[in-house]
């Protein structure tokens, strides 16, 4: 019998997991096609979740009801809040994960959802009727029918791995490539490109001289990603350390010997690699004056005998890799279990999708993850979630779900992809978010949980708690803004910090703005402490943190809100999707071409398209007024 | 869009040697051919050629012999088909020709600035240049023309781009520490950062200062002539008008008591207000005139206080003047030195409006007061436009805020926020905004990636 689902997801990576689980929880029947069900949730590269800006994405995915945060919390073997010395907007949670346990947790999570059927097979063709998806062809199951198809195939589309001049067909070490999808999309008129990414060698744990290396421990008081995680049982696994070591000039010399057999330098690799995650050979060439490069030795898991060499991504010949590694301090007698390699894969430049991640050409066809040109588990998961939500909404004839740049990093991510497209693997950075001071990891729940609840992805208890807390935050800010502290009450604290006494009473809100004073210290004052609201807020560490940040950075937050207001009017100026830009004669040629490619929904979106000039925008405004 | 063809007189109204009528739009050449008789039809002419012929009215009357210049799209000022008809400089002729043209369907009188607007909309010029064009059109003197010209040539644009690049570079250092905290990189120290911010502030300050000069080139300088009756205000005025040779216009006094003249001295426009016969005392009969006189002095950029060697010092009047204006604005001029060379009255310049003695020095004083002693060459970027000035000020405010954040040891994202805003304000001047510049700069300069 022909299999039939509401939604079919191709690929069981981080995008596929979110897409399948969210669509199923929104009431759709879901088929998940994967070449190997044991590979679901497999981390191809770094055994870590989060990091700068990526940690923000995980927190947002969690607040919307996605699963990455929970998976990471339950399988983390080291948790750190990066940038702790900086301001709250750039604090970023990151964890080392047990690679095996993460994958297992992902599999059991999907198996626990009854509406998901996992199909071990390889998709090879999309079936389209009247520009609308009707199904997908697979090698062993033949036609599988669906109303929505989400392609999240990672590095597997025509994947080609390189170590030295040897290339092997495949999307990940020991796994096959996926052939057919690119070709079938090409036939439908899609445009594809080629990208490259790399991974470092894996080393044998007990062949490393750990005692002489610099240790990097996790946080003493680790913080989980997910609102759901029970703090009393967190972290659930034993915690491990990472270690730091360095390359030197002699090592660079050895690596240079292999350049003649480098698939990158000899032109064997055609795809563009990420500039922010260059291979070690790339670093040596481009930054020749740098004497050493930092390497992080990261554990792959509690029981794992593998060590991941972060910073040593390479596709040089295996024997050169080993020779160079053995010159690294602490790795003198190291055994290399698996060499590093580069992988090339097909992607579809993302101007071809809309903000819902549905393709503009084919209704019901969605792209998520590396197929859109991104890199990173978190970026993939975020897209999987949005694609899954929108596929379900469309089937259920409900309004689409799009996040704006001022609401979430996820909004920034997708808006960037659609408007700027990308010709190198795209990674999230905090500097990409113009409203960075508002889009913090600490307030992800406050920003997005309501939306998650409305989509039916956050349960009522969690939502009620959020509302209760929101009320407490508002009440507290009001109280602290109106309660004055007379000079004598706070004199002792000020003196102890070498600050001058107050001349007249000041509100708690104003006092709190001083960098030297924490809100907790002020609340601790005898008279304030005894008040009901102080007790309430002190009991809720999360709410207290929110109030303190809002009071301390009030000026900046207000300025960012003003900026949003100013630009809002452009976001509200809608452009009909049917507009034919080629007929607007005063647009610049590049502007015409780019606008026609992207088909922006609003003037605000049009303004962000690269190659569209301010005069193009004025032409558009004049044209739309007519 | 822009289906209409537009027409307007491109030269100033009034009588001159020639007048030029400009037409732009898709009906341009056909419209001209309806009235023009020459060797060749304009529609068939090559771009950038000039054609002699006669312009007839629709009823066959000869209006004038004219020259028609042809510019085909997109290589014209507006980017559309453009023709310029040069006629003899007589308002009656130009009016007749325009009336004939606009009697055709799809052709109408241009709105003010519409040619330039079309040039901007057709991507012929950027925003800063479009504004410079309107300034050139309004330019009343040679220096004013030079100021607008140099903006059009992009001196300001290139200076602003340079400053923007400095800020992008600076931001990338700040961002580096935020997005790549784990990397083994050199991050800026507080004093390094501060030094960089300060150097941009200094550059912006130079541009801001040029605005007062730019404003003078653009708008001219108001000069009030003040003095007791019969000290020689009128003779001085007459002498200046004669001497400067470049009378811009003679406009009847705004009141019967205040005469206004415009003269150009070395390319700078001076607007002279003669407060003839007006004293500052509270005389009921002359109250109206007195109020006007006070306003004139109050609004003047320079006040010329005229005394004469025969009347002696006018301390009472000078004292009153000091209440009305900033002493720095006053030039004390002693007239009639030909009558009493040994006069001891203290002054800044000694002249004779009768013989012309000392007038050169007086002109130099005027110029010095107007533009200060700072030297602006044609190679200096000068801010002449208020919008640009405000953008620069906004940018400066943000940089000051960044400076304070650095001093207060605020975390990088707050500094980055101010730097980004400072950069956006600059980008507004040239009308270009890109957000990927900072990351591109980071990837280019630093070895990123664990």
Structure summary:
The complex is a heterodimer of chains A (626) and B (450). With 626 residues, chain A is of the alpha+beta class. Chain A contains 22 helices and 22 strands.
Element layout with pairings:
The complex is a heterodimer of chains A (626) and B (450).
Chain A lengths: L2 E8 L3 H12 L4 E5 L13 E3 L3 H10 L4 H8 E7 L9 E6 L1 H14 L3 E5 L2 E7 L2 E7 L3 E10 L8 E4 L2 E4 L11 H7 L5 E7 L2 E3 L9 E3 L25 E5 L2 H9 L22 H7 L7 E6 L6 E5 L7 H8 L10 E3 L2 E7 L17 E3 L9 H19 L13 H12 L23 H11 L5 H23 L1 E2 L1 H10 L9 E2 H5 L6 H5 L2 H4 L2 H7 L2 H12 L1 H19 L16 H10 L4 H5 L6 H12 L1
Parallel strand pairs in A: 1-2, 1-9, 2-6, 9-20
Antiparallel strand pairs in A: 3-5, 4-5, 7-8, 8-9, 10-11, 10-19, 12-19, 13-17, 13-18, 14-15, 15-16, 16-17, 21-22
Chain B lengths: L4 E5 L8 E7 L3 H6 L2 E3 L10 E8 L5 E10 L10 E7 L2 H12 L4 E3 L4 H8 L5 H12 L3 H11 L2 H25 L10 H30 L1 E7 L5 H12 L2 E5 L7 E7 L2 E7 L12 H13 L2 E7 L6 H10 L5 E6 L13 E2 L8 H13 L14 H22 L4 H19 L6 H9 L5
Parallel strand pairs in B: 1-7, 8-11, 8-12, 12-13, 13-14
Antiparallel strand pairs in B: 1-2, 2-6, 3-4, 4-5, 5-6, 9-10, 10-11
Helix pairs in contact in B: 3-4, 4-5, 5-7, 6-7, 6-13, 6-14, 7-12, 12-13
Q: Which structural class should the secondary elements of chain A be placed in? A: alpha+beta
Low-confidence stretches of chain A: none
Give me the number of helical elements of chain A.
22
**Percent of residues in β-strands of chain B:** 15-25%
Describe the global form of chain A: globular
Report the sheet-strand fraction of chain A: 15-25%
Total strands of chain B: 14
Which word captures the global form of chain B? flat
Q: Level of helix content of chain B? A: 40-55%
- Poorly predicted parts of chain B: 245-257
- CATH class category name of the largest domain in chain B: Alpha Beta
Helix fraction of chain A? Answer: 25-40%
Query: Biggest sheet of chain B: strands, sense, closure?
Result: 7 strands, mixed
């Amino acid at each position: 019998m022909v299999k039939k689902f509401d939604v079919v997801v191709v690929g069981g990576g981080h995008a596929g997991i979110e897409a399948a689980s969210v669509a199923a929880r929104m009431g759709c029947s879901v088929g998940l096609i994967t070449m190997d069900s044991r590979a679901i949730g497999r981390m191809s590269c770094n055994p870590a979740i989060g990091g700068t800006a990526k940690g923000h994405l995980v927190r947002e995915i969690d607040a919307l009801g996605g699963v990455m945060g929970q998976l990471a919390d339950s399988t983390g073997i080291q948790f750190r809040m990066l940038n702790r010395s900086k301001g709250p907007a750039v604090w970023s949670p990151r964890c080392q994960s047990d690679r095996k346990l993460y994958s297992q947790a992902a599999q059991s999570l999907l198996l626990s959802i009854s509406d998901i059927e996992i199909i071990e097979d390889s998709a090879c063709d999309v079936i389209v009727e009247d520009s609308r998806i009707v199904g997908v062809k697979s090698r062993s199951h033949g036609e599988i029918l669906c109303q929505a198809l989400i392609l999240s195939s990672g590095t597997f589309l025509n994947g080609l791995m390189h170590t030295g001049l040897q290339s092997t067909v495949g999307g990940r070490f020991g796994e096959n490539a996926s052939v057919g999808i690119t070709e079938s999309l090409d036939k439908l008129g899609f445009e594809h490109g080629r990208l490259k990414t790399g991974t470092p060698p894996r080393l044998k744990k007990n062949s490393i001289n750990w005692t002489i290396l610099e240790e990097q421990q996790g946080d003493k008081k680790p913080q989980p990603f997910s609102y759901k995680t029970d703090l009393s049982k967190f972290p659930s696994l034993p915690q491990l350390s990472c270690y730091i070591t360095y390359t030197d000039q002699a090592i660079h010399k050895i690596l240079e010997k292999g350049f003649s057999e480098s698939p990158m330098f000899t032109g064997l690799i055609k795809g563009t690699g990420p500039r922010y995650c260059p291979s070690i050979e790339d670093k040596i060439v481009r930054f020749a004056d740098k004497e050493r490069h930092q390497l992080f030795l990261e554990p792959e898991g509690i029981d794992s005998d593998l060590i991941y060499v972060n910073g040593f991504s390479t596709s040089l010949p295996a024997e050169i890799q080993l020779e160079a590694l053995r010159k690294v301090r602490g790795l003198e007698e190291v055994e290399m279990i698996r060499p590093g390699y580069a992988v090339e894969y097909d992607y579809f430049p993302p101007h071809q999708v809309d903000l819902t991640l549905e393709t503009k050409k084919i209704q019901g066809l969605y792209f998520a993850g590396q197929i859109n040109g991104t890199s990173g588990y978190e970026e993939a998961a975020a897209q999987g979630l949005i694609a899954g939500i929108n596929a379900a909404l469309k089937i259920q004839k409900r309004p689409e779900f799009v996040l704006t740049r001022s609401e979430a990093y996820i909004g920034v991510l997708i808006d960037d992809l659609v408007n700027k497209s990308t010709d190198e693997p795209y990674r999230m950075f905090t500097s990409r978010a113009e409203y960075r001071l508002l889009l913090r990891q600490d307030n992800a729940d406050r920003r997005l949980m309501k939306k998650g609840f409305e989509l039916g992805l956050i349960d009522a208890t969690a939502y009620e708690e959020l509302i209760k807390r929101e009320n407490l935050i508002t009440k507290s800010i009001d109280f602290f803004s109106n309660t004055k502290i007379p000079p004598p009450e706070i004199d002792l604290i000020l003196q102890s910090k070498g600050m001058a006494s107050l001349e007249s009473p000041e509100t708690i809100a104003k006092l709190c703005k001083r960098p030297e004073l924490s809100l907790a210290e002020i609340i601790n004052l005898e008279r304030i402490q005894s008040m009901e609201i102080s007790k309430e807020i002190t009991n809720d560490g999360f709410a207290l943190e929110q109030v303190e940040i809002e009071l301390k950075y009030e000026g900046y937050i207000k300025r960012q809100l003003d900026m949003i207001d100013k630009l809002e009017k452009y976001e509200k100026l809608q452009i009909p999707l049917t507009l034919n830009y080629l007929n607007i004669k005063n647009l610049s040629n590049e502007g015409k071409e780019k606008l026609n490619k992207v088909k922006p929904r609003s003037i605000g979106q049009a303004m962000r398209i690269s190659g569209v000039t301010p005069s193009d925008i004025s032409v558009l405004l004049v044209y739309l007024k007519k | 869009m822009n289906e209409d063809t537009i027409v307007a007189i491109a030269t100033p109204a009034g009588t001159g040697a020639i007048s030029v009528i400009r037409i732009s739009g898709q009906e341009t050449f056909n419209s001209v051919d309806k009235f023009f008789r020459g060797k060749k039809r304009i529609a068939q002419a090559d771009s950038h050629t000039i054609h002699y012929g006669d312009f007839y009215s629709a009823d066959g009357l000869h209006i004038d012999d004219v020259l028609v210049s042809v510019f085909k799209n997109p290589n014209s000022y507006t980017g559309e088909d453009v023709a310029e008809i040069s006629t003899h400089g007589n308002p009656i002729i130009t009016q007749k020709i325009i009336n004939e043209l606009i009697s055709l369907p799809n052709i109408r009188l241009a709105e003010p600035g519409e040619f330039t607007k079309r040039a901007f909309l057709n991507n012929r010029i950027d925003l800063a240049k479009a504004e410079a064009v309107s300034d050139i059109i309004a330019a009343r003197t040679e220096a004013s023309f030079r100021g607008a010209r140099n903006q059009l040539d992009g001196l300001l644009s290139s200076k602003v781009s340079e400053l923007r690049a400095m800020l992008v570079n600076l931001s990338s250092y700040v961002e580096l520490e935020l997005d790549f905290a784990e990397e083994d990189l050199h991050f800026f120290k507080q004093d390094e950062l501060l030094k960089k911010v300060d150097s941009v502030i200094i550059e912006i300050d130079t541009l801001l200062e040029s605005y007062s000069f730019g404003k003078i080139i653009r708008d001219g300088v108001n000069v009030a002539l003040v003095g007791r009756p019969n000290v020689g205000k009128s003779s001085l005025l007459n002498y200046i008008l004669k001497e400067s040779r470049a009378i811009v216009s003679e406009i009847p006094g705004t009141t019967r008591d205040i005469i206004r003249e415009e003269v150009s001295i070395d390319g700078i426009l001076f607007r002279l207000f003669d407060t003839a016969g007006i004293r500052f005392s509270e005389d009921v009969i002359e109250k109206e005139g007195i109020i006007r006189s006070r306003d004139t002095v109050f609004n003047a950029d320079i006040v010329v206080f005229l005394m004469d060697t025969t009347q002696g010092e006018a301390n009472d009047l000078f004292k009153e003047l000091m209440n009305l204006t900033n002493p720095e604005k006053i030039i004390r001029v002693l007239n009639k030195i030909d009558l009493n060379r040994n006069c001891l009255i203290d002054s800044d310049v000694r002249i004779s409006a009768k013989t012309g003695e000392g007038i050169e020095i007086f002109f130099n004083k005027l110029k010095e007061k107007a533009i200060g002693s700072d030297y602006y060459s044609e190679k200096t970027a000068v801010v002449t436009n208020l919008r640009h000035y405000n953008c620069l000020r906004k940018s400066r405010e943000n940089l000051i805020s960044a400076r304070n954040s650095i001093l207060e040891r605020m975390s990088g994202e707050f500094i980055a926020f101010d730097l980004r805003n400072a950069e956006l304000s600059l980008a507004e001047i040239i009308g270009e905004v890109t957000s990927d510049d900072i990351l591109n700069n980071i990837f280019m300069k630093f070895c990123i990636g664990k």
